[in-house]
Amino acid sequence: MLKIIRFAPLCILFILSIVSWFTIATTEATAQWMHYVGTGLLLITIVASFIHPRIGKVLTGVTLLLTTFKLAAFTSTITTISYWFGPITFPKYQPLGLGLLVLFVILHFKAILRFLNIRTPDAIAAEQAKAENDNIVQS
């Protein structure tokens, strides 16, 4: 069950993409370059997920990052938000992409730490316990 839940962001992107292209085809909405980028990345990510799941995870994360920062789109209407504090302006982002990115990070937190080669306190404790057991066995 947990393995299926980990594919939730990718499945949500797939469903949104189908709905978006159906809306574009049946209404007067027009596809922008961001829709083509998003669909291309989605297809590459789906194929990569079946061939090599780790590469699929990385590509899903990259796709969600690009979606967050308005370089890919999966909805027919592209909604962006921007914040500013005085002279400091933050980049525009898509709230849907940010939400899916947060969901992805929550579901794949340990894999992201492993990918970035960051050790958690649990991993450090396990390594120390293994080293102590190896020392006892060798003695």
TrEMBL record:
TM region positions: 7-27, 33-51, 58-84, 96-113
Alphabetic keyword roster: Membrane, Transmembrane, Transmembrane helix
Keyword presence, Membrane: yes
Highest taxon of the lineage: Bacteria
This protein's name: Uncharacterized protein
Organism: Chitinophaga pollutisoli
Lineage of the species this protein comes from: Bacteria, Pseudomonadati, Bacteroidota, Chitinophagia, Chitinophagales
